[in-house]
Amino acid sequence: MEIDGAVAIVTGASSGIGAATARLLAERGARVVLAARRMERIEALAAELPGAVAVRTDVTDPAQIGRMVTRCLELHGRVDILVNNAGQGLHVPLTELRADDLRAVFELNVVAPLTAMQAVLPAMRAQGGGTMVNVSSATSLRLFPGLGGYSATKAALNLLSQVGRIEFADSGVTVSVVYPSVTATEFHQSLRAGSFAGGGARRLPADPPELVAAAIAFAIETGEAHVMVGPPPRSIVPGGDDPWSGGLARPLAPTPGWVGGHGVATPADPG
What we know:
The protein has a single domain (7-267), classed as Rossmann fold, CATH 3.40.50.720. It has six helices and ten strands. The chain has helices at residues 16-27, 39-48, 62-76, 99-127, 148-167, 209-222, and strands spanning 7-11, 31-36, 53-56, 81-84, 130-135, 173-179, 226-228, 234-235, 258-261, 264-267. The strands form two sheets. It has an eight-stranded mixed sheet with strand order 3-2-1-4-5-6-7-8, sandwiched between helices. Strand 7 and strand 8 form a beta hairpin. The radius of gyration is 17 Å and the shape is globular. Mean pLDDT is 85; it is low at 198-202 and 247-271.
């Protein structure tokens, strides 16, 4: 899809990957709808971006998602791009994983993106097409002790995305998944439970959120089903021979230290 002239909704747009994505899409000519709970932040960002509008949205509330999409359609008459970026981490071993924490993160990381996809789909179908990009995690492609609950939510998002790609194809709607690795954001200051564990002799540097934004733009423009963040972003096939996309066939043993990013943790040595 061509970004220039498109109308794009970005959730979790108040900071990090969401804010970087909104800036990049606006730079490339999109009219961006910024959706997040922190209204003062998205209002400030909207003031920087030509044609952008801020809509306070708690994506775990279907009514607020509906109002946000309605506002987009009232302003622009269409919605071409949906970037489901809002998410939260849960960094605890399974023995400490509380059911209420898992349910809350599942609501944000899985149910909310599904609700947003359902909310924009009628408009995309009516206009003859659109693009949905769901921000997942590299942790859903490998096994990480301490991240079972979180990784499970992202794995669920991956499957919903892949099924959506099949079910929406006849309407001209493309669904893509982007997999960030270590990202320099506020993510670890807002974990649902657990704590960031850093260290390791070969600690990986954190990617800037702009690198993830570039991968999201790549997914929009190419329509690739699975995109790994990197300089440059690349298409992957989960379960393939790529060191990351090999997935569950390459579990990792516990390491002395691992580092994480936007909902993503990676080992000190990914191999």
